[in-house]
Specification:
Radius of gyration: 24 Å
Strand order of the largest sheet: 2-1-3-4-5
Order of helices and strands: EHEHEHEHEHHHHHHHH
CATH superfamily of the largest domain: Response regulator
Number of helices: 12
Oligomer: single chain
CATH class of the largest domain: Alpha Beta
Distance between the termini: 72 Å
Number of domains: 2
Length: 279
């Protein structure tokens, strides 16, 4: 539930934690400091409340019911309505690996629950101030809204769009790694059938087909624009060896990687000669 706001500009913080009893001290300290508090008891509820309430800052535990903290952060950062809201992790799980992973997936800060309440309030206040200033600047900018959509909140990203966006970005950044459907499903906390349905709804193809095409497009770009060996390109786009890559490339493009590279080189030479003659 929400506590009453002292003013329209009261800093608004969403807390996501499965055990609110342990947060009574910090919540009381924040309310005394003039903060408005919204609470959510699991990751999915936190995600939904972030969209509907648009807080200045989201403070989340790492370990959550229904949707864990890291997948929650991924969804928030992939949704256009919540991507700019700072996510702070406030957790007892304060090991270096957890902190680094949280920051790598878009968290703005990681605060141990062992820290004094005045320090926690100060750090939340810093991120709240940055968030409010960013929101104020954007409100002053000319509206870029689509006609017949009077509010920026009219075009809400669907769960399918958010999940597909997360997978697409992860695939682009980690093309050489294992991008199997079980791994991608775990990434977005969806079962395999649900993720494939999301890809069909958004892209008109399965997740496997999207990854395969992304690998081929990247391979073609590298073959056409670099002198990297075929073996290196095969590894860079996620094939176990150059033979498997060559077979997949031939089936897709109707020519071997070497033939494709020669063709692209000939096209560049022809285009260069044409430009020279035109001059």
């Amino acid at each position: 539930m929400d506590s009453p706001a002292s003013s329209s500009r009261s800093p608004h913080t969403l807390f996501v934690d499965g055990n609110m009893q342990n947060l009574q001290g910090i919540l009381a300290a924040l309310r005394s400091a003039g903060f408005r508090i919204t609470v959510a008891f699991d990751g999915l509820q936190g995600y939904e409340k972030a969209i509907t309430s648009q807080p200045d800052v989201i403070v989340s535990e790492l370990n959550l019911p229904r949707l864990d903290g890291i997948p929650l952060c991924r969804r928030l950062k992939a949704n256009t309505l919540t991507t700019d809201i700072p996510v702070l992790f406030y957790s007892n799980q304060d090991d270096p690996q957890s902190r680094i992973q949280a920051l790598e997936y878009g968290a703005s800060d990681f605060i141990s629950k062992s820290r004094p309440h005045d320090e926690v309030v100060a750090r939340i206040r810093i991120h709240t101030g940055i968030s409010q200033r960013l929101h104020s600047v954007r409100q002053q900018q000319p509206s870029m809204l689509i006609p017949d959509r009077p509010s920026q909140y009219s075009a809400i990203d669907s769960d399918d769009e958010v999940a597909v966006r997360i997978v697409m970005q992860y695939a682009q950044d980690n093309l050489a790694e294992d991008l199997s459907l079980p791994k991608l499903s775990a990434l977005v906390s969806m079962n395999k059938k649900r993720l494939n349905r999301a890809f069909y709804n958004v892209c008109g193809c399965s997740a496997f087909e999207y990854i395969r095409d992304l690998r081929m497009r990247t391979a073609k770009h590298l073959l056409a624009t670099t002198s990297l060996r075929t073996f290196t390109i095969a590894e860079d786009v996620g094939f176990s060896n150059s033979a498997n890559f060559a077979t997949a490339f031939l089936n897709k493009q109707g020519m071997t990687p070497s033939e494709y590279r020669r063709k692209m080189k000939q096209l560049r030479v022809s285009e260069s000669m044409k430009n020279t003659n035109d001059v």
